[in-house]
Specification:
This protein is an alpha/beta fold. The chain is 48% helix and 11% strand. The strands form four sheets. A seven-stranded mixed beta sheet has the order 4-10-9-8-7-5-6, sandwiched between helices. A three-stranded antiparallel beta sheet has the order 11-14-13. α3 crosses α17 and α8 crosses α16. The radius of gyration is 26 Å and the shape is globular. The two termini are 30 Å apart.
């Protein structure tokens, strides 16, 4: 594709460019009778089966409890009743011990009752009534038992060791994307971030974090904190120095990174801690969706709970993007509420009017609850909350992992990704040193880095001068029927691509590596041909 046409795509995000790449790749695959391979999205092609089996079996019990209350011939049931329901579930499962899902329910329900000192009937009734979905979410922020279970799960999934003291308050939301939207909206509504304010973010980063601040309703200035491949994606005090500027109100991190798939190590976390010693007012937003793919993962939420608001999504680890399961986590002792209390009197009065429908004392409404209200434009706060069947699925995913003492599921997921990464590296024909902080989920292939290492600086400079950065992804689609995302859309190096190791079968990834290698070789050959044709002294 010619450079003029490619320049038309420069204003589009990578996920929008992907649609045209897919159309091109499909035509190529059909014409050449080769496989169409779309490694552009991160939706995994595996699912967690046992929690789902438990959910569907629980649904059968819930329906029987409804019919136990009322069972009209027209197909009208009643609402499940709590007294004795835990014993009835236990007896019902005993009769179906060989049914898929029964063993997990028989394990996790008693475990949760003992671990969290739940009243058995209250907990089981929450599961049953919520599976039926016959009530609004109450509390609207998150079901009481579900919140305690997910809080414990997040201690493992996000926080790591040492375990932070105190309590995190959670808000169950419709996936990580909803969390992003609600948070930015709430930051602005509560004057924690105002039009024209400056935020910093680690780059490369998931594209929406780059795009949302520039929307006219936010109009934020962005300071980039680049993660560099030559530093293995870690940070020094010098890298983080821009955060010392008091004009920087917030720091946004995706950890492990997307697209480069490496978690923050201990030295980087310590460097951020040194920033907070000088900037105790700095707000941190950390998105830790991929942390579960790094054994021993430590989040900024666990290290700096007072300054940090956390986002987690279940979609990648459990293969449940369609369930839309996400969580916002905020520690009970946090600077966000402190900042609210310290706002100027005129701003506080304006916020009093905004939140007056929610409480007799609007200033007592905490930031976590304001996020809930803003998710429904305040006026519909009484109907806020993630749907109850979704929250049950969240409960069962969390309990399944908490009760997996050997972490067999985690090892299996990482094993899938590792095989695909190793196959891609084999196809690329390169060596990559091991990195214990790598999450295996994505790969960022930097053509400039690759060409300098394997072709020489002259080749890399020629490519920059003569090849449009988007040529890489369009060449892969046109010549090989393969869809990858352009790295520049994530604020990664322009001559880079992101490959997802999550969504295709193991055996195709070596072919993807070979195709990327073929495109890189074509640039090397084009460079040499151009040099050979150029007048002047002969070139080696």
């Amino acid at each position: 594709m010619d450079a003029v046409t490619l320049r038309r795509y420069e204003t589009l995000g990578p996920f929008e460019i992907k649609n045209d790449l897919a159309n091109i790749a499909v035509r190529t695959a059909k014409a050449a009778q080769i496989a169409y391979l779309n490694a552009g999205r991160g939706n995994p092609n595996w699912i967690a089966t046992e929690p789902r089996a438990a959910f569907f079996l629980l649904g059968q019990f819930a329906l029987s409890e409804s019919q136990r209350t009322n069972n009209l011939p027209a197909g009208v049931g009643g609402m499940a009743r709590a007294p004795g329901i835990a014993a009835r579930l236990s007896a019902w499962l005993d009769q179906r011990a060989d049914t898929p899902g029964a063993a997990l329910l028989q394990k996790v329900v008693p475990w949760a009752i003992q671990r969290f000192a739940f009243a058995p009937d209250a907990f089981v009734h929450e599961l049953v009534d919520s599976t039926l979905g016959d009530n609004y979410p109450v509390p609207d922020r998150m079901l009481a038992h579900n919140e305690q279970i997910v809080r414990e799960y997040l201690q493992w999934a996000m926080c790591g060791e040492p375990r932070p003291s105190g309590r995190f308050d959670l808000y169950a939301v419709e996936g990580g994307t909803a969390a992003m939207c609600y948070l930015f909206k709430s930051f602005k509504a509560n004057r924690l971030l105002n039009i024209g304010d400056t935020i910093a973010m680690v780059t490369p980063i998931f594209t929406p974090y780059l795009e949302m601040p520039h929307l006219e309703e936010y109009a934020l200035q962005i300071v980039s904190i680049p993660a560099r491949q030559e530093q293995r994606w870690q940070f020094t005090d010098r890298d983080l120095a821009p955060l010392l500027d008091p004009a920087v109100k917030a720091f946004v991190v995706v950890n492990p990174g997307n697209p480069y798939a490496v978690a923050l190590g201990g030295e980087s976390i310590a460097a951020i801690g040194r920033v907070l010693e000088q900037r105790p007012d700095l707000m941190i937003l950390t998105d830790d969706v991929y942390g579960t793919f790094v054994p021993g993962f430590r989040s900024l939420l666990g290290e700096f709970p007072k300054n940090t608001i956390g986002v987690y999504s279940y979609s990648k680890y459990f293969g449940c993007s369609g369930w839309r399961l996400g969580v916002i986590a905020l520690h009970e002792d946090n600077i966000f509420d402190e900042k609210l209390a310290a706002l100027p009197p005129d701003v506080l009065q304006a916020l009093d009017r905004r939140y007056a429908p929610l409480a007799l004392d609007p200033r007592s409404v905490r930031f976590i609850d304001r996020i809930v209200a803003e998710s429904r434009d305040i006026a519909l706060n009484h109907t806020a909350g993630l749907s109850l069947p979704q929250q049950v699925m969240m409960t069962l995913f969390s309990l399944a992992e908490l009760c997996d003492e050997t972490k067999a599921y985690q090892r299996a997921c990482i094993g899938i990704l590792r095989r695909r990464v190793e196959a891609t590296i084999s196809g690329l024909g390169i060596d990559i040193p091991p990195n214990p902080l790598f999450d295996w989920y994505y790969g960022l292939i930097d053509f400039d880095f690759w060409l300098r290492k394997y072709g020489g600086d002259d080749v890399a400079e020629w490519v920059k001068a003569n090849v449009h950065p988007l040529d890489i992804v369009f060449r892969l689609a046109e010549d090989h029927g393969i869809v990858l995302l352009n790295g520049g859309g994530f604020d990664a190096p322009d001559w880079s691509v992101r490959v997802s190791f999550a969504n295709l079968d193991d055996d195709v990834y070596e072919n993807i590596g070979r195709a990327v290698r073929a495109v890189a070789r074509s640039y090397v050959l084009a460079c040499r041909a151009a040099h050979a044709a150029a007048p002047g002294p002969a070139r080696a």
